[in-house]
Amino acid sequence: MHLIRNCFHPVLIGSGMMILLFVGCSNDQPKAIKEEKFIVTDTLLSSLLIDTVKSSNSTSEITLTGKIVPDEDKMVKIYPMVSGLVQDVHVHSGDVVGKGQLLATMRSAEVAGYAKEAISSEAELKTSLREMQVTEDLYNSGMASQRDLEVAKANYEKAKAEDRRSKAVLHINPSKGDLNYMVKSPISGFVIEKKVTNNMQVRTDNAENMFAIADLSSMWALVNVYESDISKVKAGDNVKITTLSYPDKVFSGKIDKVYNTIDPENKVVKARVKINNPDLILKPEMFANVEISSVGDDTMPVIDTQCLIFDNNQYYVLVIEGKEKVKIKPVTIARKTENKAYIRSGVKSGDHLIASRQVFIYESLK
Questions:
Q1: For 219-235, how does the pLDDT look when each residue is reduced to its tens digit (9 = 90+)?
Q2: How far, in Å, CA of 189 to CA of 211, rounded?
Q3: How far apart are CA 90 and CA 92, in angstroms?
Q4: CB count in 10 Å sphere of residue 359
Q5: Could you tell me the superkingdom of the organism this chain comes from (predicted)?
Q6: CA–CA separation, 52 vs 125, rounded Å?
Q7: Which residues contact 206 (CB under 8 A, 6 or more apart)?
């Protein structure tokens, strides 16, 4: 019996331990954890960037191309006023010239005729003046009629007018000697076109200019505006221009004219921008990239793009409504620029938006 008791004792103890273990395990069953709703506290709000929705006319950015050309208001093309043979060309393309500087000389028979007319008209003027004075003396002594005096005065006035005309023609066609016609620059600037050479024959009916002189301290950018963008571009729009030669330098200006004709080949309308060029780094015929900021007539709420949250093909913002109350609101964007978004619906002017850590807060509130 003693042996039997010793054999059964471990079994009883083991059974008891199993019972205790079972009871202990049943007491450790997992309990349901209650989720707490995320709340944006005052402390959290004070650490965030807050942006206020403003109201503004919508702005669109249009990127176009164009080229740099001389300012036509500061450029002259020089055409031959007389026919003749070019003798000496004193300048070349790219040269700097001053006002009145000699560009070339020509041998011209027409100039000799102008000089002869000027000499003849001056002599005729002196003769008619003398005749008028003599007739006036005779009239005062009763030896000439009133009609004789009037004829003498009329002849003098005609001679005076012819003398003024001949000298004006000679002044427009300056000459050195009887045959040498001088081509001078009427303004200071750069020679941007030279189309004559020594011993070249030129005629007054030639449609091509001899020289073109331009003051390059200001330039024009002619912008190619495609038909689809014509309605978006108008005079007064702000423009930023960059060139291939100076990609990091931005030239600012405004559109001062939109032309009314369409290029039949390229189907574009030209818009003109005047650019100051004091350092003369812009050169004629440079290619230009043009960014136009076009301001619309419609007024819309505008926000900073950093306030936007994009999720599942929809834009959202976090609007603060009252103390510690943040709401997720979907917004419809009418137009976006580099750092501004114009909102068609979803917010109004004066709303306060969260502009930092908004993705984290959005995910927590969602």
A1: 999 999 998 888 888 89
A2: 12
A3: 7
A4: 12
A5: Bacteria
A6: 84
A7: 79, 80
Please, is 85 exposed, middle or buried when counting C-beta atoms within 10 Å of its C-beta (0-12, 13-18, 19+)? middle
The backbone torsions φ and ψ at residue 16, rounded to the nearest 5 degrees and listed phi first, read -60, -40
- Report the distance separating Cα 55 and Cα 312, nearest Å: 27
**Domain finish residue from 250, 276, 296:** 296
Sign of the Cα pseudo-torsion (181, 186, 191, 193, in order):
negative
Distance CA 103, CA 332 (A): 65
The per-residue DSSP string of 199-266 comes to T-EE-TT--S-SEEEE-TTEEEEEEEEEGGGGGG--TT-EEEEEESS-TT--EEEEEEEEEEEE-TTT
What is the sign, positive or negative, of the torsion defined by CA atoms of 71, 72, 73, 75?
A: positive
CA distance 221 to 68: 5
Residue 10, pLDDT score: 38
SS3 percent helix, strand, coil of the chain, rounded to 5, is 30, 40, 30
| Residue 341 reports pLDDT greater than 50 | yes
Instruction: Give the CATH number of the domain where residue 222 resides.
Output: 2.40.30.170
pLDDT cut 90: percent of the chain above it? 51
* Entry field: residues in the chain: 366
The dihedral built from the CA positions of residue 192, 198, 200 and 202, taken in this order, carries a sign that is: positive
Structure tokens at 23: 């009871």
One DSSP character per residue, 87-106 reads EEE---TT-EE-TT-EEEEE
Q: What is the pLDDT of residues 133-184, one digit of tens each?
A: 999 999 999 898 999 999 999 999 999 999 999 888 877 777 766 678 889 9
Contact 241, 288 (CB under 8 A): yes
Residues 284 and 309 in one domain: no
270-305 pLDDT, tens digit per residue, is 999 999 998 899 999 999 999 988 766 667 888 999
Are residue 275 and residue 317 in the same domain, yes or no? no
Q: How confident is the model at residue 258 (pLDDT cuts 50, 70, 90)?
A: very high
**For residue 301, what is the enclosing H or E element?**
strand 287-304
Give residue 160's domain range: 109-178
